[in-house]
Amino acid sequence: MKHTQPTKNFPGHYRSICQLKLVDFESSENQNDHETDGLSKNQLVVRRGKAFKITLKFGSRSWDPRLEKLILEVRLGKAFVRFPVQSSDEYSDPRDWSAKIYPGDNHPQSATIHIYPPVNSAVALYELVVHIVTNSGYNNRSYKIGKFVLVCNPWLKDDPVYMPTDDEIQEYVKSDYGCVFVGSTKNVVGRPWSFDQYESGVLDACLKLLEVSPQHVKDPNKDYARRSSPSYISKVICAMVNCNDDRGILHGKWDGDYKGGVSPTEWTGSADILQRWFSSNCKPVQYGQCWVFASVLCTVLRVLGIPSRVVTVFNAAHDTDGNVKIEEYYTPRGEKSNHPNFRSTDSIWNFHVWVECWMKRPDLGPEYDGWHVVDPTPQEKNKDHVFCCGPSPVVGIQRRELMVGRDTPFICASVDADVIQMIVKNGQVVRTKVDKERVGKLIYTKSIGSDLPENLTQTYKKKREPAGIFWGGGRGGGLSSFDSYSGERGGGYRISRLTESDNIMSLDADGSPEMCEMSCSIHEPEVELKEVIEVSLDINGSPSVGKDIDMTVTITNNSDSPKDMVEHLNAQMKEYNSDPQKSFWEKREEFKIKPGEVLKRQHTVPRSEYEGSFTADGMVNMAVVIKDKGTDERFLATEEFNLSPPLMNIEIEGGDTIQVKKQYNVVVSFTNVLTTTLKEVELTLQGSGLLKTKAKARMGKLPPGGEIDLKVSIMASSPGTKVLVATLTHGDSPAPLARTYHKVTVVKQKSSTA
Question: Helices marked H in 34-183 — which ranges?
Fold first, then answer.
């Protein structure tokens, strides 16, 4: 319980005057009732639209309603509202602040007051003042009694963030544990993350984030007035998670050099990041990448009562020029080109992570209520010249209604752009292929109550027409980027190939009009031509380190004549969001194919070929180019995938559920499955809330089949879900060879019985 002293006293003797001595904010009962227990030990946290109570404790005599009135005042910046304490049978407008006292709540030395914050209240830290006003008008007294935090209320139907089921609220608001999916469509990996909303200092950091936002600094009163809208809050917080335009939380970095900071892959939870930012007077924390940005944003939104979840888009397009096309260039040998004349600024990330938050949209209409995309990773500036993306309703993205919401064209491209793949020979494009299926191949989030993925792909994408094949040079001229689509909104526009820039009116996240710059044209679909030779590339099984990579190339001859063919295969390592590096494996073979024949050719990349290039977070770009020797035509197929890293074993004494403030032994072990001896090996273990410092074990040489162990003790400082992360590095590579995440459930100690 929290008690506060009255802060304003007047001279003289007022034995006959009601004087306030102490205030009990009934924190334990209120926060249990409001489902905010654990968010703060120092301040009362309650939800808007639901009553909370405080108990006023008086001095020499109790409060007498016949002699004086109790007036409450709620302050927010320079704004304030005053309202009287009424009896329980008096009418009060639910749209306004009110306070009531019920029969039996007025005692000789105390009175319990029930305060009703309206559902459209701003999310903020409020100050509460009590005025004791006498009927005579003399000897009135005022007391600043303390502060409380008001957040959104997903349990209340009238709140824009209302969710219909308890299971959803438990998963998307109350749960402090998440699972972020990374890797590739061929090998999806779940990475545990602790949202940490109940850790010390996290609420303070979330409130500070609102306080130092550009909107609040520029006009605090206007900012407070708009904070009743979850769409406005999500937009402000989204921009503040990155530090590119403001005093935001995270500094993003993707070049692999993380000196002076923390590698993005080492973060396992949000608390450490938020605590560092808050304690450093809002200096950016180094470093973050997409899943870190998204997970921190998810934490802040959940703390503020807005249901949210982390979503991964596999094969996410980064469309820099807004034409909804992603261009890729390949050499005749199948190597992805880095030539400056044939290198697009667009890219496809093997995975990209953003956040969905749940809200009603009265500014757009009820059909757009539900999940909205907000993306805090700094990729492209929006129309306000800020690195912030969204909120954009998912239903509008699926319908490709580019004029609805904020940044919808960019998000649509992320999940549904066309990939224009070109083979370049002697500076000329000799073959062009359009792939309409690759981008947004899978879209996953964590399932309710389970670490298994929930497939959201169909909520973002409608089934599209098959890909078209085109011949000729040039940089993709005459290629359709968007299928024709008759929108259900906006007068039946048919969104198709993007050509000329137009300004189309849309609505801002908080309902104010905005101009959404986009491009569209109305035309008939391109004529699709069938390939004479069809080529596909499939990776067999789920590739993992220590095993060969097996693949199947399927060639179909649709002509009525036999063909002499040349097959070029190429493999390159790459990061999830970058261009490939130098090839580590190539192969060339010649073969013949009969008219109408479907030929399957098997190939294997020996594990010894990739071991020197592999890293725990690396991807493989595999390509095959088939050349028709008779016509000199070339046909391309590609696949990108990740190799599962070598396994590390983490065992906790007594199992994965531990008690708070009790010591447990942990053993981490790694076996070298490679064909080469590893030198200068280091095995580390860390875990926020479990280990104060990183534990290490070193070994000069680790031969094939050799094992390295690390034994440590852990102790949890607070209950909740924590994550241990073990990492193995060696001297021949600056990047980790293996990394393993391990979920730990921390519960309160069992009470002792007599």
Answer: 166-169
